[in-house]
Amino acid sequence: MAKQPAAVIGIGQTHHRAKREDVSMAGLCREAMDRALEDAGLTLDEIDAIVVGKAPDLFEGVMMPELFLAEALGAAGKPLLRVHTAGSVGGSTAIVASSLVQAGVHKKVLTVAYEKQSESNAMWALSVPIPFNMPVHAGAGGYFAPHVRSYIRRSGAPNHIGAIVAAKDRNNALKNPYAHLHNKGTTVESVMASQMLWDPIRYDETCPSSDGACALVIASEDVAASSPNPAWIHGTVMRSEATSGAERDQVNPQASRDAAAVLWKQAGITNPIDEIDMAEIYVPFSWFEPMWLESLGFAEPGEGWKLTESGATALDGRIPVNCSGGVLSSNPIGASGMLRFGEAALQVRGQAGEHQVDGARRALGHAYGGGSQFFAMWVVGSEKPSS
Amino acid sequence: MRDVAVVGFAQRQMEEFDGSPTCVELLVPLFAECYEQTGWTRKDVGFWCSGSSDYLAGRSFSFVQAVDAIGVTPPVNESHVEMDLAWAMYEAWIKIQTGEVDTALVYAFGKSSAGVLRRTLALQLEPYTMTPLWPDTVSLAGLQARAGIDAGLWDETAMAEVVNRSMGDAEKNEYAVRKGASSVEELLARPMYADPLRKHDCAPVTDGAAAIVLAAGDRARDVRDKPAWISGLAHNVDPMSMGTRDLTRSPSAAVAAAGAGVDGVEVAELHAAFSHQELVLRRELGLSDDVAINPSGGPLSGNPMFSAGGIRIGEAAKKIWSGEAAKTLGHATSGPALQQNLVCTMEGRA
């Protein structure tokens, strides 16, 4: 049995900020949801099911907050699911929502992913001493810095590649009115001059901590027929690998490589760099752009940094990456993956405004989480998939 | 819709698990049991999905280490819900319905004894006006039980009858952590715990884990002579607000039952963690008096958080496998006072 066709017909996101003290958790979600519903031309009453995604509950201090949010999110009287797959959750949540339509169970599904990090402290929540484990207290940057050092050693990349990514994404964010950071005048030099936090990751090469949400309306073929510009789902994939394993390659994890291979096959893509028009890739620390370019097959192993250095990942480059400003410019963790998936859909719908890639017809949305064990990706296109 | 069946089930229930809150030590033997039941290896499993709670484990990303129980290579098609096993099973059922995979193994775990469960669950409430009052789970259930008594819908005797039957049935369940029938009179003579609830009206704090195996079509027939074919699977949620909903009702349970279709059900395993909730659910699900309720002893004999709902489905599936019943029902709930509900009906077919 084949999957039923499904498309994104509504996209909404919040203005992301360090502290959205003007809204509650429910208000934050509704800001994104209401925009997505307006975009889709639907009301909440017309939605069949709600799928909520967010990262650890310790980020806000509420256990399973979707339960208290159920009524405010319009889920009362409907099926409500809550997905949590670490940092990849925004992507996984969009995939679960899509599968409800692809399975033929629902026709109009609304999915929302959020994080209101100002309610708590993400660094604390990530580093809370764990029973039966030695505390590391490293936070995400301390965890990933050795992976980046390993990448630099293996690839021989020059030291300024991360700064190129950061300067590009921060300047792209200036074209995105929803982005958290609007740091004008960011240059490779200014990034290189910023404080070293976790060698080799500098302050300007790290993602912010944001309050924000993203919502998508995913619809069946007959519902999508009334949309002027649906973003058709050409492929979805989730892959996870174990944390412990002597052979694990944390720089280029097998789960990531396997996921990409399955995704490209589903979408009928043999040469991603030529067949994908733009990519929204989960880059919380600048160096992950070249790392994931390689893992995803946009470049050969060890060559990803050359794509970045050549300007190929710029808005007008061969394979524009993170035209929205990416995770480096807005990072409400639970929503960050869905923002990647949503920005990819915006591009193929021609709705990305100032950060639109001309003629984008097929785009990649990508998210990863944990310590690079969890991956979620999709390909969306302006044309209905042929198979 | 594809024909999908429950073909494997394994569980552990215990008063206090002497191990980590991530329960990896419980999952490895559970998976081994599932492989033994199905004749599969991990490579036969097309999709994995787990259910658990970070707050129960006292840490972020508690499910991450559970993935290690699956094994290292190759990476797996995997997801996680911050919900009971029953909803993890729902996600897997959906995945099979898309045609992407034919098989799934879903699991869940929780070490309720790691903290004070009734206080931990208070963190599930509306955080601005309710959680600061720390209304604990047992007290909220007491309010619900009282509302029903005041409305004349049930009385303490009816609640004691539920307990007495459950404790008697639990004697045959090797995983029960509380068991032993007495009499309604003897139960009613015991002291109040959270008036009108006595301790036996409340499920015991239970640690544990469980796993369910799903398979479509011929993959299911290859595993068992009598797969428990899923004939209906639906879930729904009510508003949480305790002040505005009628606590004697659970509309979402009724909607889920209507969606799943309960006609002809002979055995129902209900996730009623408090005796009076069985009475609420019987009414909402529209179960007639001749339906056998919780022959396993039900949640009053053992209620491991995040797997107890799925265990109801597993217990109901076993009745199909054994040929004891032709149609059974498993129910799961989440949230305070039966806020969110899932109903799964299963049939044996020739």
Features:
heterodimer; A: 387 residues; alpha/beta; Peroxisomal Thiolase, Chain A, domain 1; nine-stranded mixed sheet; two-stranded antiparallel ribbon; 13 helices; globular; B: 350 residues; eleven-stranded mixed sheet
Verbal overview:
The complex is a heterodimer of chains A (387) and B (350). Chain A is an alpha/beta fold and 387 residues long. The longest helix of chain A is centred in the middle third of the chain and has 17 residues, at 139-155. In chain A, helix 3 packs across helix 13 and helix 11 (288-295) packs across helix 12 (304-310). Chain A has a domain at 6-122 and 209-224: Peroxisomal Thiolase, Chain A, domain 1 (3-Layer(aba) Sandwich). Chain A is built from 13 helices and eleven strands. In chain A, the strands form two sheets. Chain A has a nine-stranded mixed beta sheet. Chain B has one domain (1-350): Thiolase/Chalcone synthase (Peroxisomal Thiolase, Chain A, domain 1, 3-Layer(aba) Sandwich). Chain B has twelve helices and 13 strands. In chain B, helix 7 (156-170) crosses helix 11 (275-285). Chain B is globular, with a radius of gyration of 19 Å. Chain B starts with a strand and ends with a strand. The mean pLDDT of chain B is 96.
Brief digest:
The complex is a heterodimer of chains A (387) and B (350). By secondary structure, chain A is α/β, with parallel strands linked by helices.
